[in-house]
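Worked problem 6 (solution included).
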Amino acid sequence: MTAAAGRATTVLQALFALLTAVHLGALLVDATTVVHLTKPALMPVLAVWALARGGPWPLPAALLCGCGGDVLLQIGGETAFLAGMGCFAAGHLCYLTLFARAGRGRTAPRTASWAAAGYGAAWLGTVALLWPGLAAHLRLPVAGYSLLLTVMALAALGAGVWTGLGGALFMLSDTLIAAGLADWPRPPVPQFWIMATYTAAQWLLAAGATREGAPRPTPERELVSP
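Solution. The predicted structure is:
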């Protein structure tokens, strides 16, 4: 990475951190206008940062899908909610494309089996608990979306520690959203916690993907005389 590119990534990361802090603060004080202005800007800034760090195309694509989902969920209404869920699902497919190859051979088979069992149990248990509280026409879309999210999080876990933590936080963020759909008790100012875990998840996924996928120097081979 050149010095200019390094400075650009530093500025973009600082801008993302600033936007995130302003957005979360606005949620706490119920500054609706600031919330609506900052939310659509979060993922595009992170996408440009990921590109500046040399991220492959599925990474900015996933982040921009997240931006589409953010905007649609902000609009409100059931149609916009379902369309937003579709945008996030497309983003998870982009992440899967990215992490499926990155995770090959990194996780021992026994560890991978335990991880798959744990994530599968988490998905099944969450869906089973939420099912009675969800509207009938939302049950299958939410179950299908959450399954895709779980598979993405599992692939992220196999690709590295940072991406694995990002996938887990993404699951937590979306579980908080689903809990609202099912009228479950949630922490005070739930949107703050949803966005705090979501922005952290997306940053970890992007940072981990560019960190793990960054070109590494190849050691020179020593010439051995016959």
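Discussion: The first helix runs from residue 3 to 29.
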